[in-house]
Amino acid sequence: MFGTGLIVFREALEAALFIGIIAASTRGVINRTRWLCFGVAVGILGSVLMASVMGQISAWADGIGQDIVTACILSTALCMLAWHCIWVSPNSHQMVQEAKQIGSATSKGNQTLWALAIAVALSVLREGAETVLFVAGLVLGSTESLGTLTLSVALGLAMGVLAGWLIYKGLGQVKPQRLFAVTNILILMLAGSLASQLAKTANQADWISLLGDQAWDISALLPNDSAIGMVLHGVLGFDASPTQLQVLFYLATIIFIWIVAKQIKLLISRNRMAMV
């Protein structure tokens, strides 16, 4: 029972932390809750559908269909987060003002919420499909009673959601003027995490054979399946034993998005000064 709850908790944790950070980054924006709930609902529905056809997906393209689907999901979510970081950074001051003036925040907020709703849906889809497959396998092959399995799954989900809620409430204590900067950094790290997972998928599918050696291995000190390791993975993309390609993708993605966002912010500032 404990093992089942722990695995479900680990899958739920990543999605919950992701949603918690996204929710905090859009605090005060009109229709935020509706868009995020829509993303979660689409992700849950999609995860059930995806799990139901996972056998056929795995058989596609000479057995690497699942890797292709995973790569597409990660790439799309990464693009959505990158767009959000690049758009929010130069407009954070305006969004703070619009959060105070609820009426005027509607149109501006929806420009970024649709992208974040897609990213949320894809995060729930990815983690949810794995959870559905795991639970279905347990129901078919476990000797434990259905009631025990249901309880352990429910506890795992509840603990994962609680962790995401705590992250959201913690970010809620940050002053509004700094909230966008803090959450933008966290979302930037989430983008790096997705890039790292994309590199891992590419390595496992033998699409990229370069830099496949481990960059380091601290799993004996802080394993991925430990409580701290799971939280750090969900928030920062931590991996106790990443490949060199994962590290390269992680750093390159963060640096690229940061540089582009800075350049756009500088361009907007110059345009504003020219208009004064």
What share of the residues lie within helices? Answer: over 70%
Quote the distance from N terminus to C terminus. Answer: 65 Å
Low-confidence stretches: 98-108
Quick check: average pLDDT? 75
- Quick one: biggest sheet? none
Q: Give me the Rg, rounded.
A: 20 Å
Structural class determined from secondary elements: mainly alpha
Total number of domains: 1
Element-level helix/strand string: HHHHHHHHH
The count of helical stretches stands at: 9
Per DSSP E runs of 2 or more residues, the count of β-strands stands at 0
Q: Name the shape in a single word.
A: globular
| Percent of sequence in beta strands | under 5%
Please tell me about this protein's structure.
The protein is mainly α and 276 residues long. It has one domain (2-275). The protein is 83% helix and 0% strand. The chain contains 9 helices and no strands. The protein has helices at residues 2-25, 32-52, 54-63, 65-100, 102-141, 146-172, 176-204, 227-236, 244-275. α1 (2-25) runs antiparallel to α5 (102-141) and α3 (54-63) crosses α4.
Q: SSE layout and pairings?
A:
Layout: H1 2-25, H2 32-52, H3 54-63, H4 65-100, H5 102-141, H6 146-172, H7 176-204, H8 227-236, H9 244-275
Write out key terms for the chains shown.
0% strand, 276 residues, mainly alpha
Summarize, please.
The protein has 276 residues and is mostly helical. It is built from nine helices and no strands.
